[in-house]
Amino acid sequence: MTTTSVAAAGTTTERLRTLVAEIREAVDRGLPPDPTARLVADRLAPHLGAPDLLTPAQCEGDPAHYRQHVLHAEPDGGFSVVAIVWLPGQGTPIHDHVSWCVAGVHQGEEHERRYQLVPDGTSARLLATEDVVNGPGEVAAFAPPGDIHSVRNAGDRTALSLHVYGADITRLGTSVRRLYRLPADR
Fold first, then answer.
1. Quick one: CA dihedral 97, 98, 103, 108, positive or negative?
2. Is-contact 107 61, C-beta < 8 A?
3. Is the distance from CB of 23 to CB of 43 less than 8 angstroms?
4. Could you tell me if 12 and 72 are in contact, meaning their C-beta atoms sit under 8 angstroms apart?
5. Quick check: 145 and 91 in contact, CB under 8 A?
6. What is the pLDDT of residues 144-182, one digit of tens each?
7. Could you report the per-residue pLDDT of 4-13, keeping only the tens digit for each?
Protein backbone atom coordinates (compact mmCIF):
# COMPACT_ATOMS: atom_id res chain seq x y z
CA MET A 1 0.00 0.00 0.00
CA THR A 2 1.25 3.47 -0.82
CA THR A 3 0.30 6.97 0.10
CA THR A 4 -0.59 9.15 -2.88
CA SER A 5 -0.91 12.91 -3.05
CA VAL A 6 -1.98 14.95 -6.07
CA ALA A 7 -0.34 18.29 -6.78
CA ALA A 8 -2.78 21.17 -6.60
CA ALA A 9 -2.84 23.67 -9.44
CA GLY A 10 -0.08 26.22 -9.05
CA THR A 11 2.06 24.06 -6.77
CA THR A 12 4.52 23.00 -9.45
CA THR A 13 7.85 24.58 -10.21
CA GLU A 14 8.80 26.33 -13.43
CA ARG A 15 11.27 23.50 -14.17
CA LEU A 16 8.55 20.89 -13.73
CA ARG A 17 6.24 22.84 -16.09
CA THR A 18 9.08 22.87 -18.65
CA LEU A 19 9.60 19.12 -18.23
CA VAL A 20 5.86 18.46 -18.71
CA ALA A 21 5.89 20.50 -21.94
CA GLU A 22 8.91 18.52 -23.19
CA ILE A 23 7.19 15.21 -22.35
CA ARG A 24 4.00 16.39 -24.07
CA GLU A 25 5.96 17.14 -27.25
CA ALA A 26 7.47 13.63 -27.23
CA VAL A 27 4.16 11.87 -26.49
CA ASP A 28 2.27 13.90 -29.10
CA ARG A 29 4.45 12.42 -31.86
CA GLY A 30 2.18 9.39 -31.68
CA LEU A 31 4.96 6.81 -31.86
CA PRO A 32 4.66 3.23 -30.55
CA PRO A 33 5.32 2.61 -26.83
CA ASP A 34 9.04 1.67 -26.96
CA PRO A 35 10.26 4.72 -28.93
CA THR A 36 7.91 6.99 -26.95
CA ALA A 37 9.41 5.75 -23.69
CA ARG A 38 12.94 6.35 -25.00
CA LEU A 39 12.06 9.89 -26.12
CA VAL A 40 10.50 10.65 -22.74
CA ALA A 41 13.60 9.25 -20.99
CA ASP A 42 15.75 11.65 -23.03
CA ARG A 43 13.54 14.56 -21.88
CA LEU A 44 13.55 13.51 -18.21
CA ALA A 45 17.29 12.89 -17.76
CA PRO A 46 18.53 16.54 -17.88
CA HIS A 47 16.13 17.57 -15.10
CA LEU A 48 17.09 14.89 -12.58
CA GLY A 49 18.99 16.18 -9.57
CA ALA A 50 18.05 19.81 -10.23
CA PRO A 51 17.25 21.50 -6.91
CA ASP A 52 14.43 23.56 -8.49
CA LEU A 53 12.50 20.58 -9.94
CA LEU A 54 10.28 19.75 -6.94
CA THR A 55 8.78 21.63 -4.03
CA PRO A 56 9.69 20.52 -0.48
CA ALA A 57 6.19 19.01 -0.05
CA GLN A 58 6.76 16.86 -3.16
CA CYS A 59 9.84 15.34 -1.50
CA GLU A 60 8.08 14.19 1.68
CA GLY A 61 8.02 10.48 2.46
CA ASP A 62 5.75 8.33 4.63
CA PRO A 63 7.26 6.14 7.36
CA ALA A 64 4.73 3.36 6.68
CA HIS A 65 5.39 2.83 2.93
CA TYR A 66 6.74 4.53 -0.15
CA ARG A 67 4.83 7.65 -1.14
CA GLN A 68 3.66 8.80 -4.56
CA HIS A 69 3.14 12.46 -5.37
CA VAL A 70 1.19 12.85 -8.62
CA LEU A 71 2.80 15.93 -10.14
CA HIS A 72 0.88 16.05 -13.43
CA ALA A 73 -1.81 14.12 -15.28
CA GLU A 74 -2.34 15.12 -18.89
CA PRO A 75 -5.99 16.08 -19.48
CA ASP A 76 -6.27 13.78 -22.51
CA GLY A 77 -4.96 10.80 -20.51
CA GLY A 78 -1.72 10.64 -22.51
CA PHE A 79 0.68 10.56 -19.54
CA SER A 80 1.23 11.16 -15.85
CA VAL A 81 4.28 12.37 -13.94
CA VAL A 82 4.80 11.04 -10.41
CA ALA A 83 7.48 11.62 -7.78
CA ILE A 84 8.05 8.54 -5.62
CA VAL A 85 9.73 8.94 -2.23
CA TRP A 86 11.34 5.79 -0.79
CA LEU A 87 12.52 5.83 2.80
CA PRO A 88 15.20 3.24 3.68
CA GLY A 89 13.89 -0.32 3.36
CA GLN A 90 10.73 0.56 1.43
CA GLY A 91 9.91 -1.21 -1.81
CA THR A 92 7.29 -2.64 -4.13
CA PRO A 93 5.99 -6.15 -4.66
CA ILE A 94 6.78 -7.77 -8.02
CA HIS A 95 4.59 -6.06 -10.62
CA ASP A 96 4.20 -4.86 -14.18
CA HIS A 97 2.51 -1.78 -15.66
CA VAL A 98 -0.57 -0.74 -17.62
CA SER A 99 1.51 1.29 -20.09
CA TRP A 100 5.01 2.33 -21.06
CA CYS A 101 6.99 3.74 -18.15
CA VAL A 102 10.08 5.86 -17.62
CA ALA A 103 11.77 6.06 -14.21
CA GLY A 104 14.63 8.37 -13.33
CA VAL A 105 16.46 8.68 -10.03
CA HIS A 106 16.45 12.23 -8.67
CA GLN A 107 18.23 11.45 -5.39
CA GLY A 108 19.63 8.36 -3.67
CA GLU A 109 19.59 4.87 -5.19
CA GLU A 110 16.92 2.43 -6.30
CA HIS A 111 17.59 -1.28 -6.39
CA GLU A 112 15.59 -3.00 -9.11
CA ARG A 113 15.17 -6.70 -9.82
CA ARG A 114 13.84 -7.53 -13.27
CA TYR A 115 11.98 -10.75 -14.08
CA GLN A 116 10.85 -12.82 -17.02
CA LEU A 117 7.68 -14.92 -16.89
CA VAL A 118 8.53 -18.49 -17.95
CA PRO A 119 6.34 -21.59 -18.34
CA ASP A 120 6.85 -24.20 -15.63
CA GLY A 121 4.79 -27.26 -16.56
CA THR A 122 1.13 -26.43 -16.04
CA SER A 123 1.80 -23.00 -14.55
CA ALA A 124 4.53 -20.34 -14.71
CA ARG A 125 7.26 -18.89 -12.53
CA LEU A 126 9.32 -15.73 -12.49
CA LEU A 127 12.96 -15.95 -13.49
CA ALA A 128 15.16 -13.12 -12.18
CA THR A 129 17.02 -11.78 -15.21
CA GLU A 130 18.89 -8.76 -13.88
CA ASP A 131 19.64 -6.78 -10.73
CA VAL A 132 20.21 -3.09 -11.35
CA VAL A 133 21.22 -0.30 -9.00
CA ASN A 134 20.08 3.03 -10.41
CA GLY A 135 21.81 6.10 -9.03
CA PRO A 136 21.17 9.82 -9.39
CA GLY A 137 20.53 10.84 -12.99
CA GLU A 138 20.02 7.30 -14.27
CA VAL A 139 16.90 6.61 -16.32
CA ALA A 140 15.18 3.37 -17.34
CA ALA A 141 12.52 3.15 -20.06
CA PHE A 142 10.36 0.13 -20.79
CA ALA A 143 7.03 -0.97 -22.19
CA PRO A 144 4.82 -4.02 -21.69
CA PRO A 145 5.17 -6.88 -22.12
CA GLY A 146 8.44 -7.66 -20.39
CA ASP A 147 8.34 -4.96 -17.74
CA ILE A 148 8.04 -7.20 -14.68
CA HIS A 149 10.12 -5.95 -11.75
CA SER A 150 10.34 -4.97 -8.11
CA VAL A 151 11.99 -1.81 -6.78
CA ARG A 152 13.33 -0.99 -3.32
CA ASN A 153 15.48 1.44 -1.42
CA ALA A 154 18.26 -0.72 0.03
CA GLY A 155 20.24 2.32 1.19
CA ASP A 156 20.31 4.18 4.47
CA ARG A 157 18.94 7.49 3.19
CA THR A 158 15.85 8.66 1.31
CA ALA A 159 15.63 7.91 -2.41
CA LEU A 160 13.43 9.91 -4.75
CA SER A 161 12.56 9.11 -8.34
CA LEU A 162 10.38 10.57 -11.06
CA HIS A 163 8.17 8.21 -13.02
CA VAL A 164 6.34 9.02 -16.23
CA TYR A 165 3.54 6.63 -17.22
CA GLY A 166 1.78 6.53 -20.59
CA ALA A 167 -1.62 6.75 -18.90
CA ASP A 168 -3.54 8.96 -16.51
CA ILE A 169 -3.02 7.18 -13.20
CA THR A 170 -5.37 9.59 -11.42
CA ARG A 171 -8.19 8.06 -13.50
CA LEU A 172 -6.91 4.49 -13.21
CA GLY A 173 -5.88 4.74 -9.56
CA THR A 174 -2.55 2.98 -10.20
CA SER A 175 0.17 2.36 -12.77
CA VAL A 176 0.26 -1.33 -11.88
CA ARG A 177 -1.38 -3.85 -14.21
CA ARG A 178 -0.68 -6.94 -12.13
CA LEU A 179 0.98 -7.99 -8.87
CA TYR A 180 2.79 -11.32 -9.24
CA ARG A 181 2.49 -13.95 -6.56
CA LEU A 182 4.06 -16.74 -8.58
CA PRO A 183 7.17 -18.59 -7.47
CA ALA A 184 10.10 -16.25 -8.14
CA ASP A 185 13.86 -16.24 -7.93
CA ARG A 186 14.94 -14.22 -4.92
1. negative
2. no
3. yes
4. yes
5. no
6. 887 888 999 999 999 999 999 999 988 877 777 787 887
7. 545 544 578 9
